[in-house]
Specification:
elongated; single chain; 5 strands; 103 residues; two-stranded antiparallel ribbon; 5 helices; alpha+beta
Amino acid sequence: MVCLNESEADRLAGHLNQSREKFDTTYLEKGSNGMMIMNQMPCHFLSDNKCTIYEYRFEGCREFPALHLPNFSRRLFTTFMHYDRCPIIFNVIEQLKQRIVIS
């Protein structure tokens, strides 16, 4: 799930030369609590495992895959969802598998 905030949505809509209304309709789902998420997985802006809007990517994407953040074990499902798309996750999981086999 890719979350974003108002300023990130404004910035990307501007980069894409779209109104916020068109951007929101095309790319976002809004929760009842106001949370905004991209309406497609993988993200609309991922092509050949590369971000096509890299300079304008969202905060969550900047810290992705978040292996350095606390509570990694609570994000295992999300991590494995991206195993086949993210070279960082793939390589980390493969190294962990090797360590488990060797131990």
